[in-house]
Amino acid sequence: MGNNVKKREKVPSNLPKRKQRMVCLMSEEEVRIVDAYLKKYRITNKARWIRETVLGFIRKKMEEDYPTLFNEHDMRR
Q1: Cβ(66)–Cβ(58) under 8 Å?
Q2: What is the residue range of 41's domain?
Q3: How many domains, in total, are found in the chain?
Q4: 5, part of any domain
């Protein structure tokens, strides 16, 4: 009966504790979309998925917007 229970991974003690809370409101349709995605891809930790998705998007965008010596048009010439 308890053989299929997934054990929680321990968080290393050297990582900073998450003490700040962020809240966002979603419509019922948006929640259904997110829940359907999580179910389809068998994602069980919604908070971690949201955190990794948002931070991954921000990191990618910051890398794209990183200041360069020349603008993109000059570099393509």
Answers
A1: no
A2: 28-67
A3: 1
A4: no
- SS3 call for 25: coil
- Confidence band, pLDDT 50/70/90 cuts, at residue 49: very high
Nearest-angstrom CA–CA distance, 7 and 38: 19
Tell me the one-letter amino acid at 56.
Answer: G
20-39 pLDDT per residue, tens: 999 999 999 999 999 999 99
Distance (Å, rounded) from C-alpha 33 to C-alpha 39? Answer: 10
Question: Is residue 76, in this structure, part of any structural domain at all?
Answer: no
Amino acid residing at 63: E
Q: Which pLDDT belongs to residue 1?
A: 53
Model pLDDT, residue 43:
97
Alpha helices (H) along the chain = 28-40, 46-64, 72-76
